[in-house]
Hints:
Elements: E1 6-14, H1 19-31, E2 35-40, E3 45-51, H2 56-64, E4 68-69, E5 73-74, E6 91-97, H3 101-112, E7 117-121, H4 127-132, H5 134-152, H6 167-193, E8 196-199, E9 202-206, E10 209-212, E11 215-224, H7 238-241, H8 246-249, E12 258-260, H9 266-272, E13 306-308
Parallel strand pairs: 6-7, 6-11, 7-8
Antiparallel strand pairs: 1-3, 1-4, 1-5, 2-3, 9-10, 10-11, 12-13
Helix pairs in contact: 1-2, 5-6
Bound molecules: flavin-adenine dinucleotide.
Amino acid sequence: xxxxxxxxxxxxxxxxxxxxxxxxxxxxxxxxxxxxxxxxxxxxxxxxxxxxxxxxxxxxxxxxxxxxxxxxxxxxxxxxxxxxxxxxxxxxxxxxxxxxxxxxxxxxxxxxxxxxxxxxxxxxxxxxxxxxxxxxxxxxxxxxxxxxxxxxxxxxxxxxxxxxxxxxxxxxxxxxxxxxxxxxxxxxxxxxxxxxxxxxxxxxxxxxxxxxxxxxxxxxxxxxxxxxxxxxxxxxxxxxxxxxxxxxxxxxxxxxxxxxxxxxxxxxxxxxxxxxxxxxxxxxxxxxxxxxxxxxxxxxxxxxxxxxxx
Length: 310
Ligand SMILES: Cc1cc2nc3c(=O)[nH]c(=O)nc-3n(C[C@H](O)[C@H](O)[C@H](O)COP(=O)(O)OP(=O)(O)OC[C@H]3O[C@@H](n4cnc5c(N)ncnc54)[C@H](O)[C@@H]3O)c2cc1C
């Protein structure tokens, strides 16, 4: 290769987490001889141009800046990376139904391989995890844990007290976190990776076509990543009584007087951990053990099938 030729290059960079990291890595690369360096923490890479063959200094500079550089590689003419936006003809290599974590993982990988990708979403971008699952549940559980610990630490000579929880404020803060992460971890990636996001409900009309609100979307391959929704079992009397689901429980603005959690798997256990927000009642449970005779506090409260609020 001509030593004076200008090459477009790419380097994977681990350890970047924010826009500042992008700037630090780009600066380090340019200090080491790269030109037009751009780093992207979401993609974990930097692209730049280089005149000549001296790549040794690049990795050293990135390392000195506190990040973990990979081996620089020349971007081929045919490289799928920064490339082609999707066409406007609504014809794709891959159409994904759903926009949750599974859908995004697939879209990112497909774009890395150079595919034209469309993503269809009937509800809110990001799906379950960021909107009504992992993120909001952990935000509320952490608040609950802090509240519990304020009144239950084990240190002699230290007096702390948990005040009355303001669940509306907890939920408002949770909603802010969800909105920020939805934007940063999902919505922003649509542009960053260059795929098309199509809002609306997907309906198949043929082996190579689906329709979204009347708009045909053709693709060579389809991925169904439609996740799951809360489901209530047919328990006699349940409909008449009324019930919360994991989604609606995470949006309560006031603590319920009492809460029975039906189902003791992961999500049921999380819902049971609302308990530290309220005073746990001492109720006998099957087997004759008192409901509070096991380990207590966040992380343990969930093993009960019913938590009690007062
Ligand atoms: C309270 C709670 C806590 C959780 N905590 C954790 C945790 O800590 N760790 C963990 O790993 N997992 C956790 N999970 C599970 C995790 O959230 C899910 O497993 C994961 O989000 C599923 O992702 P997905 O991409 O498969 O589907 P989803 O994120 O559910 O996305 C599916 C999307 O498809 C859309 N859709 C459906 N039908 C159509 C259609 N016809 N057209 C267009 N769009 C459509 C839906 O609107 C939805 O947005 C939790 C779940 C809950 C409810």
